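User: Show me a protein chain along with its predicted structure.
Assistant: Here is one chain, sequence first, then structure tokens.
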Amino acid sequence: MSNTPNELSEQFPQSIEKMHDLKTSDAHFAKLFDDYHELNRQIHRAETNVEPTDDFHMEDMRKHRLALLDEISPYLR
């Protein structure tokens, strides 16, 4: 298991400028972006035992992060 945050800029390195533009022009994308990053930080803190959590909560958070990623990715194609 990697303890490196799963940042959107790493997921979509070719879309960094597009993400910036969408954050300023599309309120829904901006909310998805912020929600993803907040959840990603929570997962990273749990993985590194800064804020430990149980396996069920970790699995739920990871599923939610994937759902957000599924919603964000069409914006970046």
